């Protein structure tokens, strides 16, 4: 029973990594044309900054938060070396 | 004591501290090439964090960032935009690069590609491209150091002498201590820059405008186009969205694969340290916010400053602001720290790739470990001298080469992705991608009218790179499956 469970866990983990990768692609698209122009205005002002600047700062903070979440979600496995292929035959 | 002398003494004090830290840190590494280039793969989170932080705080960011905000307004936000995703790819491929480096003994980026594609041509090509990309970048750092010294001492220290003093210190600690010297001085320099960025970034808007909010109120009333994206072009005309977006894209694509940063993956103590460094990276990038505030604070208070990169030294030394000489000295030290913390990594990497990647491909196993280490150190001195002579003595401008270098480096991104994600890529496909990508980038740099929409030539290069890689890989013999499985496990 252990092997199917491990395989299912691996599949779940892969799903989360794919979701995070998609999130970062969307975040990247959000700071360039055609999404960013909708937010590249002066008003509303946030913490004194124009929206065009505050929006990019918010994206930076979102980037930090998403990876921090992933790191915490990974739990004790976060420090594990990635699986390697066959051993080096020399 | 004359104000300029106080400034000079504070700066010399900073340089002495950098030298002491740089020299002291080298004693912890083994006397091997791995010790000199990869710090025996022992760096912890603090040093890794500041090494990558220094990548943001180059002389370009410290002087050029305020210059962009001052002259081009919202266009400067592209620097923040690419930092949102710039280092994220490391979280995904970094652990595998580090593990393979530990297993097969890589200390440079090209060694990974050479092994993956069983090619001696790839590292030799990458070594030449890397050094060509490093040189103008290094020259810019040296020019920045000489310029700052000259301005804050009211012309008493000529630019050539300022650059010689700062980079004399850099050469000594890089020669003696290798990557550990780079890492620990970056830590000291990074803390220094953080304090200075926030201090000046909040003080100057308050002093000149009554705060950040009132500063942006005044700019919005007088020059609203400066605050709306995508800001202004180099001549003050509205910038295009194509140019803005491709500047973000080319910087984001290239950032995680610049050879001198990529090889720092091998220096991390363990996978967890590497991941924490990537997570924390945006917290360093956020320090660019006050740096941009400094530039905006000068828009209405100091109109007409030329070149725009001079806005920060102009504000700091102006009688209206009235900063005490000791603070001006700290600013000078901070600007030098920005220049040196980038320049030292470039020098160290240039020496390493010249010997390990270029000479190691042309004459495999010609040098033993001690010989390699000795030659890397010699090449650090040679590159330092060449960059100094070109930048400060001959005053040759390589700005065009700098623009080209970003396009070139971005071509490494598809190669890095397929290294770990596509079993079907072949040696010929990888080489064809690099040649096509580099060729298109050069062509469109020579004939910018062909680059539609003001889009960066490197973006077209990446498209050609991927297309050539796929087509040629489909038509050529695959690498042995067992070999590829080392990089892409089933």
CATH architecture of the largest domain in chain B: Up-down Bundle
Alpha-carbon distance between the termini of chain A? 36 Å
What is the overall shape of chain B?
A: globular
For the secondary structure, the number of strands of chain B is 0
CATH fold-type name of the largest domain in chain B: Sodium/glucose cotransporter
Would you kindly provide a written description of the structure presented here, covering whatever features stand out?
The complex is a heterodimer of chains A (90) and B (490). Chain A has 90 residues and is an all-alpha fold. In chain A, 59% of the residues lie in helices and 0% in strands. Chain A is elongated. The relative contact order of chain A is 0.09. Chain B folds into two domains: 3-399, Sodium/glucose cotransporter, CATH 1.20.1730.10; 411-490, no CATH class. The model of chain B has no long low-confidence stretch (mean pLDDT 91). Classes of the chains: A mainly alpha (90), B mainly alpha (490).
Write a brief caption for the model.
Chain A is mainly α and 90 residues long. Chain A has 2 helices and no strands. In chain A, helix 1 packs antiparallel against helix 2.
Can you give keywords for this protein?
heterodimer; A: about 90 residues; mainly alpha; about 60% helix; B: about 500 residues; Sodium/glucose cotransporter; 2 domains; 22 helices; about 0% strand; globular
Helix and strand topology:
The complex is a heterodimer of chains A (90) and B (490).
Chain A: H1 2-30, H2 51-74
Helix pairs in contact in A: 1-2
Chain B: H1 3-25, H2 33-38, H3 45-56, H4 59-72, H5 77-83, H6 88-104, H7 109-116, H8 121-152, H9 159-209, H10 212-222, H11 241-255, H12 259-262, H13 271-285, H14 288-301, H15 311-316, H16 325-362, H17 369-393, H18 399-410, H19 412-421, H20 427-446, H21 457-475, H22 481-484
Helix pairs in contact in B: 1-9, 1-16, 3-9, 3-13, 4-14, 4-16, 5-11, 6-13, 7-8, 8-9, 8-16, 8-17, 8-18, 9-10, 9-14, 9-16, 9-17, 10-14, 11-18, 16-17, 18-21, 20-21
